[in-house]
């Protein structure tokens, strides 16, 4: 056997099937062969990982979209009663009553159920609900007002503090802006009447972009930031997210977890490092998660909104991250004289 044939046999033996390089190229020189071999050795782990993913696509998809999100969600749920996710000022006993201000019956289920369940079930804060319309856009106002009572019952909101208003200038309409001058005195009246400590509402985007949501959220913000007297000690607005994140269910926990990593690290490191070398956690953000029991309670509450239980709502209850995750941002209260 000639030396060239012997060399070819060694390089292209049946056992070396992983070397799929063109044979002519491999045989160009001994140095080239060594370089190729070295490159394959260096990328071996990545290459093997890639091969494994190609061979187990279903399992890989299951791990990425189910296993890891569930693990991260469970980890955050374990931290949900600590200061890592919920600031000390909310956990203090001075916060006893919460008022949720929304625009339509069913907003409390579709967007705020993790907030309501976490505050009521985990922190024993009394709930109140003020809904500025009866959702009478297609003439179902009275029906939806009745359905709201069933939802409040499921969410442990006392019926006497579960209110849907029916005012001539504030009716469910996606094209008519609600005047702040009309909303603000009404909210203030119920803050005083129900001795509210904590206000929660939509942010400027209103989660779905509905202008009634945005008007209500802006009215709450105006009450807190205007410097006018209010009994409410703290106010939070529900963070809106992109459409992709909104309908990513608990997979959105990837984004949420990353954003809370600095606070989690600080909580872990502060017990190791005796000095307060790390800046205090940002208490302006709150993360509230539904337990499986909370989620089922929220579904039961939404089942009361029979007139709204269309086919797309079945998808929403599974696909929407707002059924599982609420991120609240603090509205900074303006002190008179500042
Ligand atoms: Zn709404």
From TrEMBL:
<comment type="similarity">
    <text>Belongs to the PIGL family.</text>
</comment>
<dbReference type="Pfam" id="PF02585">
    <property type="entry name" value="PIG-L"/>
</dbReference>
<dbReference type="GO" id="GO:0000225">
    <property type="term" value="F:N-acetylglucosaminylphosphatidylinositol deacetylase activity"/>
</dbReference>
<dbReference type="InterPro" id="IPR024078">
    <property type="entry name" value="LmbE-like_dom_sf"/>
</dbReference>
<keyword id="KW-1133">Transmembrane helix</keyword>
<protein>
    <recommendedName>
        <fullName>N-acetylglucosaminylphosphatidylinositol deacetylase</fullName>
        <ecNumber>3.5.1.89</ecNumber>
    </recommendedName>
</protein>
<feature type="transmembrane region" description="Helical">
    <location>
        <begin position="58"/>
        <end position="79"/>
    </location>
</feature>
<dbReference type="InterPro" id="IPR003737">
    <property type="entry name" value="GlcNAc_PI_deacetylase-related"/>
</dbReference>
<dbReference type="GO" id="GO:0016020">
    <property type="term" value="C:membrane"/>
</dbReference>
<dbReference type="GO" id="GO:0005783">
    <property type="term" value="C:endoplasmic reticulum"/>
</dbReference>
<keyword id="KW-0472">Membrane</keyword>
<keyword id="KW-0812">Transmembrane</keyword>
<dbReference type="GO" id="GO:0006506">
    <property type="term" value="P:GPI anchor biosynthetic process"/>
</dbReference>
